[in-house]
Design brief:
The structure holds two protein chains of two kinds. Chain A is of the alpha/beta class. Chain A contains eight helices and twelve strands. Chain A has two domains: 2-119, Rossmann fold (3-Layer(aba) Sandwich), CATH 3.40.50; 126-216, Orthogonal Bundle (Arc Repressor Mutant, subunit A), CATH 1.10.10. Chain A has helices at residues 10-22, 33-42, 59-68, 84-93, 105-119, 152-162, 171-178, 187-200; strands at residues 2-6, 26-30, 47-51, 75-79, 97-100, 126-129, 132-135, 141-143, 146-147, 168-169, 206-209, 213-216. In chain A, helix 2 runs parallel beside helix 3 (59-68). Among the domains of chain B are: 243-307; 315-455, 2-Layer Sandwich (Heat Shock Protein 90). In chain B, 50% of the residues lie in helices and 18% in strands. Chain B has helices spanning 8-57, 164-214, 230-274, 279-307, 317-331, 354-371, 400-408, 424-433; strands spanning 58-60, 66-68, 85-91, 101-104, 126-131, 137-146, 154-162, 315-316, 338-341, 349-350, 375-383, 386-393, 437-442, 448-455. In chain B, a hairpin with a 7-residue loop joins strand 6 (137-146) and strand 7 (154-162). Chain B is rod-shaped. The chains are: A alpha/beta, B alpha+beta. The A-B interface holds A 9, 11-12, 15-16, 19, 53, 80-85, 87-88, 91-92, 95-98, 100-105, 114, 118, 123 and B 255, 258-263, 265-271, 273-274, 288, 292, 296, 299-300, 303, 323-324, 326-327, 330-331, 333-334, 354-355, 358-359, 361-363.
Amino acid sequence: MRLLLVEDDPILRAQLREGLEDAGYVVDEADNGRDAHFQGDTEPYDAVVLDLGLPLLDGLTVLKRWRDAGRVTPVLILTARDNWSEKVAGIDAGADDYLTKPFHMEELLARVRGLIRRAAGQASPVLRCGDLALDTRSGRVTLGGQTVTLTSHEHKVLDYLMHRPGTVVSRSELTEHIYAQDFDRDSNTIEVFVGRLRKKLPPGLIETVRGQGYRLAVP
Amino acid sequence: MRAGAGSLRLRLLGATLATLVVALVGAHWWLTGLFRDHVLQQFDASLTQQLDQLTARLEFDAQGVPVIGPRAMSDPRWEKPYSGLYWQVQRLTVFAGQSSAVLRSRSLWDAQLSLPDDALADGTIHRHHITGPRGEPLRAVERSLKAAEQAESRWRLMVAGDLREGLAAVDRFTGVLAASLGGLGVLLTLAALAQVAVGLAPLRTMQQGLQRVREGRQQRLQGRFPNELQPLIDEFNGVLDRNAEVVERARAQAGNLAHALKTPLAILSQAARKVEPTEFSALVGEQVEVAERQLHWHLARARAAATHHVPGQRTALEPVLASLLRAMGKLHADRHLDLGADEVAPELAFAGEEQDLQEMLGNLLDNACRSARAAVTVRASRDGAWLRIVVDDDGPGIAPEQRAAVLRRGVRLDESRDGSGLGLAIVVDLARLYGGDLELTTADAGGLGVRLSLPAAT
């Protein structure tokens, strides 16, 4: 899952980035409203963590512009002003959740997980597909109750597919969501990751749709 | 307008009426005096004329005895006994055996006029007030003369008339005058009342305008006022504007302060949790939380304290509630709650800041959404000067014996805050700053029922 992190304070941004990456997210950064708007407008993020107090363009305006342009990416706003009028203004501008500074990293991760899950139409924090289960809170993957050990990239691919069971996901889409913007992407590596996943999971779970991409088979 | 020591109306009326009374009483006294003098003058003139006539008729016979000539005095009252008009001729130098009154008008009958002794120069006329034969007050005029033929004897001629007729006229005049002046006084009083009412009408308009500002139906004093009042109105509007500006600036500064402090606090908090737990990191984490709590608390208080005395505040309930319910629906989307507000009447309004209402309702709704199982309901009504808002949830509720403690936490800063699972402390504090209150009960649905009372705006 690929996130956009918008925060103007470099120390807090680094802390958040570290926390998010530790949780398995791919993170792109922006430190001002103008860049944030551009990135959010052009890249397919799974969620955005948006600080409201930003230089050049404030967070609320950035958010409104995305929503006006039809971007539905879930957005979590970070705000220092914790009164309800600010929160309501944020929600009315199109935010999906808010977090008041200072906050705990666990709280931020829980909110981001919830946002991504809800955006994919999943109600439970534990994603299931037949015997396969992925707990979004711990990142643990089990097959019939037995833990499946995955590498970071394998996990990212499975996580993305598990959020969209039965939907065809193209290679380029997968690439966009498991690599950061400045990463030298090679879509052939996706095939490698999928191949490894297939070996660890029941046969036929990840189907290849010729010329289109991959699909997680719903039993 | 209230009457009292400070009443402008009473002052104006008092001054006007006092002047009026002094003027009318003075006019009465002066006019009455003038008329009395005039009546007496006329009376004296007529008596003097009679005296002249008497003098002209007086003759002396060969023995020096005075007689009234053959051409009798013309006025019939001389002949009628006690008619009220008398004359008398008296010897001034009386020898033994002689009667002093030598000649009298027939009207005197057997009485005699007695004048006080008087040293008279010949020819001059003197006036006296004396008592007549029947005890009536008489006005008398006299003169002395010497017959040219008798150098040794001098004579005193007097004419007297009954003064009561004249005095009655004066009394009649006094009565009529008093009635007229009284009537004039009543008219002038009415005019003064009307004048004061018309003159003070703009003040009344101003008072009503101020009341509307206080009730929050207007932001400023509107309309044109007389030249004397307009500067005051302009100044007052200036103060209102400035007040709003100051509040807005204070709010912005508070927000900036929060923003400036909270990012460093967030960094500290992250850093403290990042390292291996030590006494130091625990201390930092703990103190960051305390600092954040204090910040939140004091900002809310400062904002409320700055705004709740500002006149002219009016916040309609319905839009605030609708936006909060919309936000709650999104924030608690996972819980699939049934969030409902029973038809909130559009005229219901809170006499205070919009942000404060949002803060109170936001916290209450957020709490309710966190504890509810399936539904949160909001009801609102007007109860006299109060706006009653009820937020019910169907969650586990709070046991009656714990409710007081939950609310009391609001008093003690270090124990307040979400640790208890409820952000009620701020709500209680804000409500009380506005003179309202918060009460915890059991909701019909079994959960917690929060009853918030706030001053209503008309």
